[in-house]
Amino acid sequence: MSISKELKSAALIAVRDCMGLRPGERVAVVTDEPCRLIGQAIFEVTQSAGNPVFLIEITPRRTHGEEPPPEVADLMQKMDLILIPTSKSMTHTNAKRSAQAKGVRVATLPGVTEDMMVRCMNADYFKIANLTNKLGDLMEKTSVIRVTSPAGTDISMPVEGRKAIRSHGLFREKGMGGNLPTGEAFLAPLEDQSEGIVVVDGSMAGIGILSQPIQIRVKNGYAKEITGGAEAKKLVELLTIHGPLSRNVAEFGIGTNDRAKITGVILEDEKVLGTIHIAFGDNMTMGGSVNVQSHLDGLVYSPAVWFDEKKIMEDGKLLI
What we know:
Layout: H1 5-18, E1 27-31, H2 36-48, E2 53-57, H3 70-76, E3 81-84, H4 94-101, E4 105-108, H5 114-120, H6 125-139, E5 144-148, E6 154-158, E7 165-167, E8 177-179, E9 184-187, E10 195-200, E11 203-204, E12 208-209, E13 214-219, E14 222-227, H7 230-241, E15 249-255, H8 266-269, E16 276-281, E17 295-300, E18 304-307, E19 310-314, E20 317-318
Parallel strand pairs: 1-2, 1-3, 3-4, 4-8
Antiparallel strand pairs: 5-6, 5-18, 6-10, 7-9, 9-15, 10-13, 11-12, 13-14, 15-16, 16-17, 18-19, 19-20
Helix pairs in contact: 1-2, 1-5, 3-4
């Protein structure tokens, strides 16, 4: 397995700068066949730093948010630091949450590719952190977020009292965690309260870049009606695997990474500066109450966004 110099450099930034690896810390890298190269690169740079490190390859999960095998979940709680480059996201799993609750620092890298690692890990994470923190602070002062878009999105999401997550890529303190590469501010709308229409016209987790928009009608906080072409049918199938709770409006987020671009891999797409995403399914990771083994983000192009009466985005351009 040949690992490029650029990929090793990106892996080193992830482990050293973003995760703040310290001497003697025990590290686990959990990967699967599609992301094996990334897993190997992270393993090698960690090993070169002199840290004890485990490389674990699991069978790819069926959907984003599905749990790892229990033996892996158990091992995760015994580490100081875990990096998870896997084809399906383990961000919204009980295994990750339980490890963090024990003080483990966890980075998930769902669907990560070599190109994405090299490009996005070389972003200015201190600049990203500044913008992400500013948006998070504004979100926490907001009662209702409203989003519209040229494609027909028009949804209101009550969020009063919800804590914003500032995924800025610097996860150096005990129990911290998030995606790498990263750059987003997000929160969980209040359950049962979002109303309106979301037209996903960028990309959709589990599907990729869309050839036809997916229209999702939201009532009482749930996706009641999903229409469009073959990709809308595919979304319905993915949601059906895990039942009605997977239709919960779980997340509203804004991308803050200026190096990210739309690739069809939601890990990167949802971080693109000038886009917003709305996710359905599990929201426990962000302080909600819906626990389900599914979390699917949909990307909306050229949005206008209001935090209460204050317009903070127009046609995909931040106004702050």
